[in-house]
Amino acid sequence: MSSAVELSPVVPLGRAHVVGDFDSGDPDIDAFLRDRAATEQAMGFSQIYVTSDPAGSVAGYFTVSPVTVRVEPALLRTIGVGAAPYPLIGGFLLGRLGVARRLHGRGIGAALVMRAAQITKREAALVGGSFLAVGPGTGGLVAWYARLDFVRLGEKTRRMVLPLRAVP
Hints:
single chain; alpha+beta; 7-stranded mixed beta sheet; globular
């Protein structure tokens, strides 16, 4: 059994966060945080949220941005809407997600997804939006997100959504 980990609350990425030593085991996830996250956040492309260890090093992060998705029957069923008068509807995209390799297997990734869902639900109350979408790149991630109550929108797509009405 793994020991408890003390991490900071999830907050927006700031200048004080130490990102240079972040190692999730995925070079693309690591390079994004180290090289592009602050710039993309400053440009308004997405909001990056982080949690840090007591030394100030980022222990995990995720990105959230607005997204529109074509109205399809599977999407309407999943979010509990009978019909939509528009060809596209809005929600949020959980983009990149990374947890420091030294902390893998401790439930931090799932906790970050839940925090992203809570943040997007709060924002949806202000601006609209009915789902949190993900586009898992691998079959293993599809199964992982399914365990977190995301629903796949069809056999031909890996796009999955979590209805915000289901988020506590």
